[in-house]
User: Fold Citramalate synthase from Hansschlegelia quercus.
Amino acid sequence: MTCERVYLFDTTLRDGAQTAGVDFTLADKIAVAKLLDGLGVDYVEGGYPGANPTDTEFFAEKRTTRAAFTAFGMAKRSGRSVSNDPGLQGLLQAAADACCFVAKAWDFHVREALGVTLDENLAQIRETVDSSVAAGRETLVDCEHFFDGYKANSDFALACARTAYEAGARWVVLCDTNGGTTPEEISEIVTAASAVVPGTCLGIHAHDDMGLAVANSLAALGAGARHIQGTLNGLGERCGNANLITLIPTLKLKPAYADRYEIGVGDEALEGLASLSRSFDELVNRTSNRYAPYVGANAFATKAGIHASAIVKNPRTYEHVDPERVGNHRRLLISDQGGRSNLLAELARVGVEIERDDPRLVDLLELIKKREAQGYAYEGADASFALLARRTLGRAPDFFSVESFRVMVERRHNALGELVTVSEAVVKVVVDGEPLITAAEGIGPVNALDVALRKDLGRYQPFIADLRLTDYKVRILNGGTEAITRVLIESMDGEGQSWTTIGVSPNIIDASFEALIDSVTYRLLKADAPAP
Assistant:
């Protein structure tokens, strides 16, 4: 059976840039384009050349080798000729393979926002596509608010799509711009649109305001569309866009789609999907969603003991796909609900070998449950779990010991008369029997402690030179003045490998320092640092 080709169009560098808190530099955009090109998407939309200096410089040269490098912009303005429209000319002069133009498809917007007649809007679409095709660009038209427009005036919305297609657009993309359309409506309206634009030239652009962007994209595919637009990790304005990181494995691994369609993403790229997702989050300085489908740290995590036992016997019991196919892995969480099966599976995963009938397993399991009752949560702190297991089994070297630490926070006026808060930490450690005392200032007490702890560990210093903290989370477990505080710290080495450690204490600084010690110790263990 011959599979139909489905084309993936990534809009991360435009739609993703509209995400609250995300601001791409030129270097960021170049890095993301490279990630996408390696992934195997068919189009990489880079933004709006001429809109700002970053996008203009980004389009000074072609940034992809495989994917069609695509410039985005508005259709021709009313009252201007093609040659006298700076926005349109900016796209045609960009170093791009394709141009994607957004055009109004809702009669309300045409009259109220553009202030033109419906016929004038159709003429603008036609002239825009004509000029792009004449310039040798593969041309796409995003019909903005198409589904709202169809509900209000189906004849006009369809006329917009037909006009773009007849003028020579390679893809006419139907946009659910406010994310308010259901899969049933998507299917019905895309079917109607396919009567005026062939499915092989029809696309879908879905927003996630109801959490349905992925479902709507698949509904459009089922109704005949063969082009899907989305972003990495679902970034986008408001609630985001269709998540390509979810769509890609669904199209590749689910028989309902894999047996009918093919995409440009290969099996090798699919196996790197989880890593790519995390790398992208790191690039935009966002915490990865641990519950993200396919690629999240908890996507294949099971906590209850009876479920874990079933997974050990048959992994597919609670897993809809093989985790390794998307670069993820199975996790049987260690908690007060877990039993021996969970523990053995997690020990094997973190590299601790032990016989199933080893009596120390019972001691370790009881210790874990006792500590979880105190506030520890090892399902989110793999590194601390590995250290706890090794210490209990007598397999964790004491690379260093901490004799004491002190933190001072002072608020004062500096020499310029400015009110500042200064944090200073002093840490005393013992390495190979030799006491080492270090002091450091930091941005807050935890940062000061971190800097002081890693400032001088004697002969172990080279092993932690590339260690850095990437995330810090605090949770208060019970209220009142005697609240228990749980701290999770995520660390990363120079190779991009990350791990999480935990600390629990009534004192937030003490909990933080416990997690910091585990982080440094785990790094030394990973680096095969020599034991004392």
In short: Residues 401-526 form a domain with the Double Stranded RNA Binding Domain fold (CATH 3.30.160.270).
